[in-house]
Task: inverse folding
């Protein structure tokens, strides 16, 4: 087996998205790792190959990552998956009831701002 150093590629890590183990590289954002694994996370402003900035907030998820002692700690708030880098052992949930409701609220606010501007 070759290492990332020998091949020039980053070493692979494993994260869990919606209960599915996903092997990815540490240079990716959560939305990229999910997409590569065939897991859909909704988004409006994300575009592969461009620097993400999390403006639309549609790709929010809940996530937790292990600390140095191996205890899982939640990431603060509901991070945008397009701006959240993967971390070894990270656990991500993309479609909990809370996240779906949050996305509905985001869409409602977006819709209202468009209607107000028109």
Result:
């Amino acid at each position: 087996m070759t290492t990332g150093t020998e091949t020039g590629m980053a070493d692979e890590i494993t994260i869990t998205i919606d209960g599915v183990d996903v092997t990815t590289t540490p240079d990716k954002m959560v939305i990229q790792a999910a997409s590569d694994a065939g897991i859909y996370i909704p988004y409006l402003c994300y575009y592969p190959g461009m620097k993400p900035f999390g403006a639309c907030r549609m790709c929010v998820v809940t996530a937790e990552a292990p600390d140095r002692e191996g205890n899982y700690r939640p990431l603060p708030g509901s991070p945008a998956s397009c701006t959240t880098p993967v971390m070894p052992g990270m656990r991500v949930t993309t479609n909990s009831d809370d996240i779906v409701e949050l996305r509905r609220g985001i869409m409602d606010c977006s819709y209202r701002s468009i209607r107000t501007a028109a």
